[in-house]
Amino acid sequence: MELLYNIFVGPFAEMARAPDLLVQTLWEGLVSGVLYALIALGFVLIFKASGVFNFAQGIMVVFAGLTLVGLYEAGVPAFLALLITIGVMFALAVCIERAVLRPLVNQPDIILFMATFGLTYFLIGFGELVFGGNPKVMIADELYLPKGAVDLPMFGGLVSLQKIDIAAAVIASAMVAGLAVFFQKTRIGRALRAVADSHKAALSVGISLNQIWVIVWFTAGIVALATGIMWGARSDVSFALQIIALKALPVLILGGFTSVPGAIVGGLIIGIGEKLGEFYFAPAILGSALGRGVESWLAYFIALAFLLFRPQGLFGEKIIERI
Amino acid sequence: MSLRRIAIGAAAAALLGGTALTTVPAAAQETIYVPLLTYRTGPFAGSGIPIADGMHDYLRMLNERDGGIGGVKLAIEECETGYDTKKGVECYEATKGKNPVMYNPYSTGITLQLIPKAAVDKVPLLSMAYGLSASADGTVFPWIFNPPATYWDGASVFIRYVAEKEGGFNKLKGKKIGLLHLDAPYGKEPIPLLENLARQYEFELKLYPVPAQDMQNQGSVWLNVRRDRPDWIYLQGWGAMNPTAVKEAVKAGFPIGKLVGVWWAGGDDDARAGGPEAKGYKSLDFHAAGADFPVIKDIQKHVVDKGLSKYPKDKIGDNLYNRGVYNSMLIAEAIRNAQKVTGKKVVTGEEVRRGLETLNITEARLKELGMEGFAAPVRVSCEDHNGHHKVYVAEWDGTKWTKSTDWIEPMKDKVRPLIEAAAKDYAAKNTGWPKRTETCDRPS
After folding, report:
1. From B192's CA, which of A199, A270, B168, B365 has a CA 20 to 30 Å away?
2. Confidence of residue A135 (pLDDT cuts 50, 70, 90)
């Protein structure tokens, strides 16, 4: 009985007791969710176009962020460093296509997946060699990213919205909208979708797989750069950031590996769900001592719970194999 | 074999060769082999790099300036652990055949794994101000040393400091004190002592664990802080967790002067991350920051200026760099002591254990070492492998760490009985834990 109370009454009573904290929690969840969605978007783009789960997406976030800050520290003006970093991400996409993907055409998916493992460790080593292991401070001011907070009096309390978080939400939303238009309205976008549906069919109508792969890895690189800038501005740019990329896994499980809207919705559900779980439900159910620090596994629990009802994820395609 | 295969093979060999080049010359007959388990890569590299460089540069300075210790050159070899326990144990196994005189695991997780091996392999462990607090009991852990203070000493100094700021120990009653800690053996280490003190002084202890994968994603933790409104927070973080915590504290509007880090949360980059608002952030410390000491000047002259250091010139004297210097000073003094105790020049691990156990670094000795005002005297004994020495509270002034209090005595009367009980408990739980048979030398 007490357990039921702790699940169905206690947390909600706590929410009603301090509604300003609830709004703050939802906002924090929303921002985390948007950032998870950005990382997940990088995975989805590559999975859609090549069927490869790109384990290297996390290190691409770090690599892009370090390149940007590293160039700036070397004396390159901030916006020029940004442009050069975009160029570096393009060069990386070309190298990956030439050195990793092209030689592995027609190999089983698991081989490509393992290749992205290799790519991850190569980029970690290469990044550490070039930029060192020290964390770097993101050049948020130089890129004119806002700082400070907007404090909103609400429900007798105060809700504090960090301007960098607002910027992250706006930039992420703009990127998602831009990608949606790119996918739906442009010729290349249509070609990408064709490749996603069937490599052979796409090849038969003259679509260049190699060109598409470069474009999609480059786009994922741009997404990684945006993620690196936003996340780096919130904390630091360090190799620890790549671990956060693993948070995209439950987002993908939830949203489906092939759906851009799924990445967004999944990200938001995971972001808000883990914050509510950590803040309200876990302490009520597990007690204040045990209920702290559950955030790291709660996201996976939420995703697995969804899978019970929709094994293909919220927006994933239901695959029916005919025997 | 095709040209392509040859090229791939050559590239792989070059890569492997490159890795091997990072190591130092193999220990020759007339050298003393000092392996350093360091981490310059991975999520904790931000803290690991300055310490690794400080440790390396001091020992290298002894080689360059004095020709080693007692006329015997030191063979210094780094092994990269990435702060990963498994890799740390691999480093230990890979180097233990080279007659190491001591191990410095630089990770509580690795230390816990190596503790049972030390007595078997006859190589002492120096876990300087980290590791298992209970290992300060030399009667149970003759091969483990953790001067100058344990995590329990640190936590007790923090509580003493809070009591002083609040107007006395009786004012702690009803206060909320938070422990923001890495959810790993290192981060959890001060919990038993803080729980004990919470019962005694009737303050409420709030725990805020941060899983390693969420070191840079502490939003939820700080929501909890906002709800609980702790009066003080003690930060037992490491690596990327520390700068993020300082940033989040600023963001959450937590009074920065009431956030006090353990000595491992006192890196320059940790505080700098919080920007100008981090001014007033505090951290415990047991040595000075800055380059204005003869020992650091010698390092600059004999190592940095000769291009033998990997650390940026303008950062020499950073707090964690000096931590590495201090650690290597303990290593060197133990070796020197072992030479004195045994009368031999090339000493073994067993002999350096004796050197550690008779360590007595006085004010006069510190002056000789160029460390006057840099650190406080250190003394350990056969029974007490720590010494429970005084530490002080350092404050970030916006650009550097400054000493903001006098040396503060740990609550030894509270800490020592807990250490002895925990040591007995450790021995009881580890069936077959050897009874101390090592003889006790007189202090040097």
Report:
1. B168
2. confident
Q: Closest approach of chain B CAs to the CA of A234, in angstroms?
A: 8
The tokens of B68 are what?
A: 């080693």
Report yes or no: B83 and B51 within 8 Å, Cβ to Cβ: no
Give yes or no for residue A297 having a pLDDT over 70: yes
**Nearest-angstrom CA–CA distance, B94 and B91:** 5
A275 reaches B (C-beta below 8 A):
yes
Mean pLDDT over the full length of chain A: 85
Q: How many whole angstroms separate alpha carbon B55 and alpha carbon B321?
A: 8
Which residue's structure tokens are 């991850």?
A120
- Name the residue with tokens 């700098």: B272
ipTM for the predicted complex: 0.76
pLDDT at A222: 94
Domain assignment present for residue A317? The answer is no
Among A150-159, A263-272, B366-375, the range of highest mean pLDDT = B366-375
DSSP code string of A160-206:
EEEHHHHHHHHHHHHHHHHHHHHHHHSHHHHHHHHHHH-HHHHHHTT
Q: Which domains does chain B have, with CATH numbers?
A: 25-149+290-389 (3.40.50.2300), 151-285+392-414 (3.40.50.2300)
Q: Is A235 on the interface with B (CB under 8 A)?
A: yes
Chain A environment of B210 (Cβ under 8 Å):
293
Pairwise CA distance, residues A110 & B55, whole Å: 44
CATH number for position A16: 1.10.3470
pLDDT for residue B28: 47
Question: Is B184:B12 a contact under the CB 8 Å cutoff?
Answer: no
Q: Answer yes or no: are the C-beta atoms of B137 and B385 closer than 8 Å.
A: yes
Per-block average pLDDT, block size 10, for chain B (444 residues)?
49 43 49 96 88 98 97 96 94 96 94 95 96 95 96 97 97 97 92 96 95 86 90 94 92 94 93 90 96 97 96 94 98 97 95 96 97 96 96 96 96 94 95 92 67
Is residue A322 assigned to a domain?
no
Token pair belonging to A236: 């630091």
A136 Cβ under 8 Å from any chain B Cβ:
no
Shortest Cα–Cα distance, B226 to chain A (Å): 8
For chain A, the domain total comes to: 1
CB of A243 within 8 Å of any CB in chain B? Answer: yes
CB A101 within 8 A of CB A213: yes
Give the pLDDT confidence of A199-251 residue by residue, as tens digits: 778 888 888 888 888 998 999 999 999 999 998 888 788 888 887 777 888 88
- In B, what residues contact A, Cβ < 8 A? 39-46, 48-49, 183, 206-217, 219-221, 223-224, 226-227, 239-240, 243-244, 247, 251-253, 269, 272-273
Specify if A321 maps to a domain.
no
**Residues of the domain holding A154:** 2-309
Mutant choice from A134, A136, A162 vs B, greatest count of B C-beta within 10 A? A134
